[in-house]
Fold these 2 entries.
Entry 1:
Amino acid sequence: MTVYGIDPALMDPVVLDYRGEPPADNRFIHLHRPMSMVQRADLPAALHWVLMDVNLAPQVALITARRLAARPRHALHGVLLTLKLDDWRAVRHIPRLLASISAMGMEEVKATQLPSNRMELFVCGLTRAGRQRLTGD
């Protein structure tokens, strides 16, 4: 598989040089810029998964996740997102955040609190194609 990593920081050479075991065609492509600077032309025509773990407010992170998940949506299998909560008052926004993820075309959305610092949610959203791929139906 090909993984596109979006990060303005430098990547470890081990990550940049990853090719997997022969004859695998695995590779990592580093888009060395902030997410907001990534254009549609920087990404492949079809994205199957969007994985995101950023230190941004959930509402800001979801703007980018929505933009990436829309390219093109029929190929998308799902999203795996870590959302950082600013403080405990942000808990009241969780239903709205999950509804926003569902609106990306996800048929199934599940969330769980991450135990490491208790201020993060992990959200898995699956499209119909993603559910079919996982279940074989």
Note: The chain is about 25% helix and 25% strand.
Entry 2:
Amino acid sequence: MPAIMPSTLSLNLRLKLLRDVDRTVGRNLQDGGRLRPVDLARGHGLSTQAIRNYEAAGILPGAERTLHGYRTYTPLHAQALRTFLALVPGHGHQTATSIMQAVNRDAPEDALRLIDESHAQLLDDRRTLQAVEAALRDLDPVPRERGDTFVGPLSRRLGIRPATLRKWERAGLVQPRRDPRTGYRVYSEADVRDALLAHQLRRGGYLLEQIAPLIAQVRSAGGVAPLESMLCDWRARLTARSRAMLAGAAALDAYLDRRPAPPG
């Protein structure tokens, strides 16, 4: 499940701030194109410790040292930091870190593979949204019938752990009955439908407390109009993520052009 995405407004604001960053860093450049850690940090609204952490993590290339052991950075480091910050909104912190690590160790193919995987996940998320929309459009009341599905088969069908289904039950997302003889949870057709919808909404980044009232609405089959605003928000966040990926790709392309050619 993808992590919860920030709102469209916050993504757009972050991208605007990133576009303004180069001007700020440019004003802080010292003679010879050298930057102190504080210059690089302030230009991006970070702490000097964050800059050191990024360098240690391989997000930035290794810094040169002065005779007294102080780090010095260059416009290439500023470009690397700007690239990382541009990649985060679309790909997430972990993947953005892995992309920059791959580039800085002269393995651009690994970086491009990670980007391809992010785009594939985004496409899968779009298909998930379309599936939710289609399911809700065709939603009809489902009569309560004798259940014939247990927690194990259902968890395997969804690709989740049985403990997750039990957690959903406590949150009210599913309401399996108990077999009077064995005490096992038995999921009816309606329960399976609710579990599938809950799984799709979780993939869309929604919390259990957000999903529970929607599942209740679906369970009663009283209409899907209250879900429209959530679906609109989901679509907007996917669009914002796509735009963020474009911005990150542009920054990464510029960084790749600026880096020195690898040996050999």
Note: The first strand starts at residue 64 and ends at 65.
